Amino acid sequence: MIGLSVLSEQDGWLKRSLPSAELQAFCETHRIALDAFDYDQHTFRDLLDYMDFQEYEHYLFVLQGDGERTLRLVAYLQHQMLHVQFHLIRQNGEVLFGQPDFLNGLFLPQEALTVPASFPDVEHAILSLMTGVYPGVPPHHPQPLRHVYLEDSSLLDRIPATHFNTMTINSVLYFDHPMRHDLPIIELMSRTPMLLAFSDSLSPLDTYLAVLSRDELTDRLYDWHQTGRIRNEQKSGVLDYATLSGLEVSHRLFFFEDGIYADRQKTVQLSKDLSQDIEMLREHPPQPEALASQAELALFPLLYQLAGSFEGDSHFITPYSDLELPRTSGRIGPLTSIGIRNAEGCFVFDRTNMRLFETNEAFLWILEADQKEQFDVLPERLGAEYETAIQHYKELMYHG
Description:
Blueprint: E1 2-10, E2 13-16, H1 21-29, E3 32-35, H2 44-54, E4 58-65, H3 68-80, E5 85-90, E6 95-97, H4 122-131, E7 145-150, E8 167-175, H5 183-191, E9 195-198, H6 205-208, E10 209-210, H7 214-227, E11 229-230, E12 237-238, H8 241-245, E13 252-256, E14 259-261, E15 269-271, H9 278-283, H10 294-307, E16 314-317, E17 337-342, E18 345-350, E19 355-359, H11 361-372, H12 378-382, H13 386-398
Parallel strand pairs: 1-3, 1-4, 4-5, 7-8, 7-13, 8-9, 10-12
Antiparallel strand pairs: 1-2, 5-6, 11-16, 13-14, 14-15, 16-17, 17-18, 18-19
């Protein structure tokens, strides 16, 4: 059996590409299985298990863009699975790995393939590692390990290489020291095609992360609930927010000289032994009591970032806080739009396309009444503008 997948690489990040209609037809005609891996969700072990289950004899990767990490991934697969012949070619037919003569003289269509719209960013990955917040990541159990922190590369000598097989393929291994290629790092790169990042490639933590105690974070959440207000001193996030708040995620691990921790500030030690089976550690990690509902805790980091886009304090219109109307009790549906009021004006953030647009106070009144299902207050509040304002709101919110 023959398998084939198309991928793009940029700065080491891997993304699945959409095959052209001609390539799809070619695979159907010649009974080639066309795969589409999600490199953000699947781990190295997932990939190995899938390949083994399919019982492929040959597997061909078609590459767009950079190829350095893709080449290491294909070599890794070949080393792990000697019974499968792996091959890597560019879309123009250039052979980078293997000998794809198993096609018996057939040539893949050379039409342009669809390039992914966007690639991840290493700074966003490190932000998730340091905060524990992974926006846009769907719930998945068991939760895959996404990013790992190492205090120093010398710790690699005490960590089994198999630990890294449980990380998602587009994970980052972050070393808290300047870039260097010493023997432990070279040996790691020869075994597992990891993405590596070093401290000198990023800004110092204290320049983009707020350091709050659990009590301070409790006060911030209480203020948001009671007034809709969020203060942010132009920071991108809160260090160890997930651990401080009790957000139920466990996508990260921290390796220090004295053990494995769940957080950067070393408040939750998981093991003193760096060789400990990390899958067992992460099954039931110690979890502080949640400071609010999981929906609220998942939303707050986004609001905090938005607040940092403006000078001074911002008040947010969501169902979770008091503002002009009391916060909602009971079940709350999907929250697609967030209202913002501050000294710079009135705004709405659209979560479906991650765009911010300016509006007016009447629009925010209607948005809050809509979210909290209290439309009866609008006729008196809007007065003569009621019909016009409601029509304008409906056109923007429900008709694009």
